[in-house]
Amino acid sequence: MNKHAIRATNLRVGYRGTLLIDEGRLEFPAGHISVLLGANGSGKSTLLKALAGLHPLQGGQVWIGDENLAATPARRLAQRLAFLPQHPNAPETLTVTELVMLGRYPYRRPFLPPSREDRAAVEEALSQTDLHDLSERSLGTLSGGQRQRAWLAMVLAQQSDILMLDEPTSYLDLSHQYDLLNLIWQLNREQGKTLVLVLHDLNLAFEFADHLIYMKGGRICAQGSPAATANPELIEEIFGLHCEIRPHPQAFCPLLIPLAGQRNRRQVAMPAPPPVLCSDKCD
């Protein structure tokens, strides 16, 4: 087994002649959770699409395991790698089950009904994402968080060894963000899947990732484990954020504490707000 699930050399990616990604060598370890980090416009989503074969390369090579991306047939690639974009689209009238079944397209034959394996994969994906109660609801009736979970279920039904997720915690409240990332962690630890994510919350990345890749201006500025790369100087260089890094009291990982503007806020004395009494509707 190749120790790198995805690797690229001399990678050049851009739009309409404008070069956005120019990186000599990039590797994602197999069987680990890797997270791309960087400010808006740093090239994270563009890089993810290029590695998934969804954006043309201006130069370089990408390998999925030992297979060259450019020479891999689309159906074969979809069996090895599943990609969830930042803003996926589907007809609003599709039910959750119908959407999740679309994840089985790499295995299905045209015009034939779903096989027993297809139905079992969809059932498992619905269970993993806690969507059984919503399985017959149309996408147009779902909240943003419910819809995000439905899209994740579709990706899980694809049963690929590599999952690439572009900002999968978008639209999710804090509780569901942790539910989703705990599911991702279980898929990695229990099934050995390789995960490559784009996240904006550094503390979530520190807690759940094995390997971090920091980007700025289309280049890789640093990479390594959370413990090795979480330092205030790097965070300020990448994000322009003054911060402290302390040990997490429970998760055994770094914890970022933003300091920007803190001193100025402390100098402004504000009266304490009156207590808010919760009505019976809060129960």
TrEMBL record:
Matching CDD domains: ABC_Iron-Siderophores_B12_Hemin
A biological process from GO: iron ion transport
Compartments where found: Cell membrane
Record-level GO cellular component terms: plasma membrane
Spans through the membrane: none
PROSITE patterns in UniProt: ABC_TRANSPORTER_1, ABC_TRANSPORTER_2
InterPro entries: AAA+_ATPase, ABC_transporter-like_ATP-bd, ABC_transporter-like_CS, P-loop_NTPase, Siderophore_ABC-ATPase
UniProt membrane topology term: Peripheral membrane protein
Pfam families: ABC_tran
Tree of life domain: Bacteria
Gene Ontology molecular-function annotations: ATP binding; ATP hydrolysis activity
SMART domains tied to this protein: AAA
Family to which the UniProt record says this protein belongs: Belongs to the ABC transporter superfamily.
Name of the protein: ABC transporter ATP-binding protein
Biological source species: Marinobacter antarcticus
